Amino acid sequence: MQFFFGTFLSELSQEPAHVAWLNDRKWPARTLTPIFMGFGFMLASYPEKNPEWRPWSAFMERWAHTFFPAEAEIMRYYSGLGLVFIALGIHFSSGVKDVLANKYLLWFGKNSFAVYLLHGTLIRTVLVWMLFGVKLPADVEQDGKMVPGPALKICGRVGWYFWVPVWLVLLYSIANQWTKHVDPFCARLTMRLERYMFDERHATSSVLAQQQSQEREKTKLSPLPK
């Protein structure tokens, strides 16, 4: 849903008639933007668990069973649909676009894909070490058998507030290096593979065309049967 809507919105943003229509009118930004963005944030705030705890989320759950496919992940549908409305609200407001075009926000956006790729691994390793330590409790004997020791204890509140920002800085630092070095390397490798494949296809096509041409020439020059 996001892919096709993003493609549509990108094309619409480059349509001269639509751009001129937006530039000549103020009411879409003043009216449509707050409506679409407010509605989008409401949809995207659908809880992952226990929607029946609040009346508004319980109503959304009943609505979802009516309109969404059976056995669908309701939270993901609502998140995606909310993102569509938020993007549409941004589209109608040049002011919101200017805010989001801030160089610092653009830097975060540029590194967002690398963060998406790396954050899971860094959570399961570095962040766990920061919050729980780097050593497992020793095994203990229970009923004549050795069993794992007590569960790990998380650091205190002060440690949590200290280590999480440190981890975020580390995450974005590594992601920035990934964007600078790994992404360009992958792009160059992809271009080489594309050139190789297309050159190979072109060479194969040229050889086949040459062989067919030679066959036609032989047919023309061969003597007619008596």
Topology:
Layout: H1 2-13, H2 16-23, H3 27-44, H4 55-67, H5 74-91, H6 94-100, H7 103-110, H8 112-132, E1 140-142, E2 145-147, H9 157-221
Antiparallel strand pairs: 1-2
Helix pairs in contact: 1-5, 3-5, 8-9
Q: Could you describe the 3D structure shown?
A:
The chain is mainly α. The chain folds into 2 domains: 2-101, no CATH class; 113-201. The chain has 9 helices and 2 strands. A two-stranded antiparallel ribbon has the order 1-2. Strand 1 (140-142) and strand 2 form a beta hairpin. Helix 1 (2-13) runs parallel beside helix 5, helix 3 (27-44) packs antiparallel against helix 5 (74-91) and helix 8 (112-132) runs antiparallel to helix 9 (157-221). The termini are far apart. The mean pLDDT is 88.
N- and C-termini, Cα separation: 70 Å
Q: Number of folding domains? A: 2
Number of helices: 9
Major β-sheet annotation: 2 strands, antiparallel
Provide key terms for this protein.
2 domains; two-stranded antiparallel ribbon; 2 strands; 9 helices; mainly alpha; 226 residues
In summary, what is this structure?
The protein has 226 residues and is mainly α. It is 75% helix and 3% strand.
